[in-house]
Amino acid sequence: MKLDLLKRVCFLSVSLCTLLLWLSCGKADKSPPEKQIVLKLVHWYGPQRDNWQKEIIESFEREHANIKVGMDVVPYSLYYAKTLASAASGAPMGDVVAIDDWFAPELFKRNYTVDLQHYFDRDFKAQDFITQVFEMCRFPLGENGDLLAIPFATGTTVLFYNRDLFDQAGVSYPDSNWTYADLLAAARKLTRDIDGDGITDQWGILADDGTYTGFDTMLYSLGGQILSPDLKQSWIDRPKSVAALQYIVDLVRKEKVSPLPSSLESMGEKFGSEKVAMVITGDFVKLALKDVRFRWDITLPPKGPEGLRLSRRFGNSFCIPRQSQHPNEAWELIKHVLTSPSRGRLNELFESMMPVYKSLAFSKDWIEGVPLCNRRAIIETEEKYSFFHITPGWLEWREQALTPEVQNAMTGRKSVPEAAHDAARRISAILKQGEPGKAPL
Amino acid sequence: MKKFISRLEPFLYLTPTLTGLLLFSAGAVVISFLMSFTHWEIVSPPEWIGLGNYSSMLHSDLFWKVFGNTFYYTLLSVPLSIALSLALALLVHERVRGIAFFRTAYFLPVVSSTVAVAIVWSWLYHPEIGLINLFLKKALGIEGPKWLSDTDWAMPAMVLMSVWKGLGYNMVIFLAGLQNISEEYYEAARIDGAPAWRRFLNVTLPMLSPTTFFVLIINLIGSFQVFEQTYILTKGGPANATLTLSYYIYQNAFQFFKMGYAASMAYVLFAVILLVTLFQFKLQKKWVFYG
To answer: Within a domain: residue A146?
Structure first.
């Protein structure tokens, strides 16, 4: 009887221990796994899709086992409309969304994005970045605005020159001491009628009619301003701006050292055709010159008569839309893109644009990236001379007021003061119409 | 009751179509009309501003420029297109060997994509390497204009491409009209001693007038709505010289996201087309012969 009881006790004890052991093991096995989070990254770098997948997403997923990243590549031509439509519908376009500088203020003013300042202060030191670029991610625009996006790639406006054409004309290459007077003198020597038929075959420079950043760069360096410092009205009709605009228009009409800019060809295409010896434009044009047969290089844009050297900056950023369910994880992804992309593929990943994180910008991988050129000039221009003045409604005032009026002046339909006056009136009206309750003008 | 149900029956079958029509056509028309009285940037809620958009439009010099450009395009393209397509129809009306080939060839641009055609023409118009300027220089010794970069030439260049593109369509309609003219009229005219040009003026043109009227109305409406050519060839430039109403509406709606303003312009465009068409219908009593 006793033995039977002992057996039973032993059996019960063993069973209980086994149960406890099983439960304890089971508990460890059954503990809810860390919740899998799926992020969506949206950008327009279509040709680099595979590189982004391999060099950024896969390395990020290896470091963050609980996060999966999906990538949505939207063609650039549809990007702005899609982003704005997403903002309007309230349906998140993604958790990390790339935005271009010219439409960023449209999203910022509509309260589309999360303020990233506290994340940035927590995880980064400002001195590790080319901080000038952050200005374009702040809203209201300026140093005191909220940080509504983080720039990851940037560029600025530089002077491209065709070394072969300079050599043929016996003109020394432009350097950092060049002024706009030197530019004009060289352009005169480089403008040539090669076959002697009375028609210019080679132009010294290609003027910008306001379509690209070369126009802003020239105008501001020559003492002009398109917008007032508070960005609320246009100052292009002020005497200094009119004089600067006159210089640009004279390149086409009086000096005849530049062809009339054409909407048929971009600045890069025209420069790549070897018909112009110089062009002042965004450094991204270097990508279009990757396979040209002539020798070319870039340098700082020239200085104005008062020693002023300014260069219009541009750049791409990442934002986290307010509708994102995972802002913290989205920030981790932004951090990764900003600081950890594969060094070997750095130049391709950002399509040769300069990384904003200094250790990447100054890395051999970017400085000596293809196409090889004086990329240190881009860094110097960015850090010392670059400026930015994009406002909400930028596309409208640029396309419907500034460029058409500059074209009117360049084709002689209007005098420079008249074109400047009309441009200023329309730009100011467009800037004002952003106020609530105002009907468009 | 049975009678009532049998009367109702057709409407039952029409319900899917009517629902679609009400929702996607009539509904959109009503909403866009209401939208034209608002300031709406898509992201923020619409704000009622009454006639604000219409008033802004009337005070905008750019709108009047765009309006003028659209009329300029219409005045250039419609007569040119009608005259050339009628001439072409007369040519391909002849019963000669291989005429089917020519009819097909002239119709080919109509079935080609406007985008592809515009891209090809943009290269033809290239001031330095374009075939047109090369021909002018080599064959005639003339320095051609800068076409799409020139404020004076950009619109005629656009018109030329549009006329070329639409020629085949008008030609086919004219051809059908020509084939409907009874040979007896021509015989009678010949017996009366009328020469060819007289037969054209006194027989062909009057008998073709209903067809001409149809072509005129279709071309007028199409020319007021010109969009693809502007979009691909010039984007409205240079200096807004080719900015036409439809493209301007598109820009305001889908680039600047000023939906209310764009809607108000769409209604002005609608009113203009309606008025011009009504005027043509009024005028047709004087020149269209339905004999």
So the answer is: yes
DSSP 8-state symbol, B241: T
β partners of residue A318: A98, A150
Inter-chain contact B39–A112, Cβ cutoff 8 Å? no
Interface test with A, best of B59, B240, B243, B259 (most A CBs within 10 A): B240
CB–CB contact A396 B235 (8 Å): no
Nearest CA in chain A to B41: A88
Residue type, A302: P
CATH number of B61-114+158-287: 1.10.3720.10
Whole-angstrom distance, CA of residue B83 vs CA of residue B287: 16
pTM of this structure: 0.84
In this structure, the answer to whether residues A247 and A215 fall within a common structural domain is yes
Residue A2: Cβ within 10 Å count: 6
- The ranges assigned to domains in chain B are 61-114+158-287
| A264/B251 CB distance under 8 A | no
Residue B233: HSE in the Cβ half-sphere, 13 Å Cα cutoff = 35
Q: At what angle do helices B154-179 and B205-224 cross, to 10 degrees?
A: 140
CA distance B67 to B71: 6
Residues above pLDDT 90, as percent of chain A: 66
Domain count, chain A: 2
**Residue A303 has what DSSP assignment?**
B
- Return the beta strands (E) in A141-274 as ranges: 146-147, 150-162, 203-206
Q: Per-residue confidence at A198, pLDDT binned at 50, 70, 90?
A: confident
How many alpha carbons lie under 13 Å from residue A179 in its C-beta half-sphere? 9
Q: What is the domain extent for residue A203? A: 156-313+390-432
Q: Are B68 and B240 in contact (CB under 8 A)?
A: no
Classify A99 as helix, strand or coil. strand
pLDDT at B45: 83
> From residue A429, how far is each of A34, A101, A240, B232, B261 by CA, in Å?
54, 22, 21, 28, 15
The burial class, CB within 10 Å (0-12 / 13-18 / 19+), for B244 is buried
Residues recorded for chain B: 291
| Amino acid symbol at B134 | L
- Strands A150-162 and A311-319 turn out to be antiparallel
Provide the CATH number for the domain around residue A360.
3.40.190.10
Q: 3-class DSSP state for residue A391?
A: coil
Stretch B221-229: mean pLDDT, rounded?
93
Residues A342-368: tens digit of each pLDDT = 677 888 888 899 999 999 999 998 999
In a domain, A216, yes or no: yes
Contact between B138 and B129 (Cβ < 8 Å): no
Is A223 strand, coil or helix?
coil
Alpha-carbon distance A243 to A416, whole Å? Answer: 9
pLDDT value at residue A269: 83
